[in-house]
Design brief:
Layout (H helix, E strand, L loop, with lengths): L8 H10 L12 H10 L12 H10 L12 H10 L6
Helix pairs in contact: 1-2, 2-3, 3-4
């Protein structure tokens, strides 16, 4: 997968949809590729430099524990994580 940078965006997207962690092999992935990566696997957020707030929220929507991989989350991201991690009692 290390030659993923030399592939078309279509091939890159297919690789990322197969495994979101493949984003780590791209030096400058587009926002679309980043979004596909975190939607496939929330933990792929750890391979994205300076992820946008939107990407951070999408990653925790995919898997709440991905929140642990987010460096310096904003208040909005933290609140979204708390909302998704609620324990309901009946």
């Amino acid at each position: 997968m290390h030659d993923l940078n030399n592939q078309s965006e279509e091939v890159q997207l297919a690789a990322i949809k197969k495994d979101g962690h493949n984003i780590q092999f791209l030096s400058n992935p587009s926002e679309e590729l980043q979004l596909a990566a975190v939607r496939e696997n929330g933990f792929a957020i750890k391979h994205i430099n300076n992820p946008s707030e939107h990407l951070q929220i999408e990653s925790i929507k995919t898997h709440i524990l991905a929140f642990e991989c987010i460096r310096s989350p904003s208040e909005k991201v933290t609140l979204e994580a708390a909302k998704r991690n609620r324990t309901f009692r009946y």
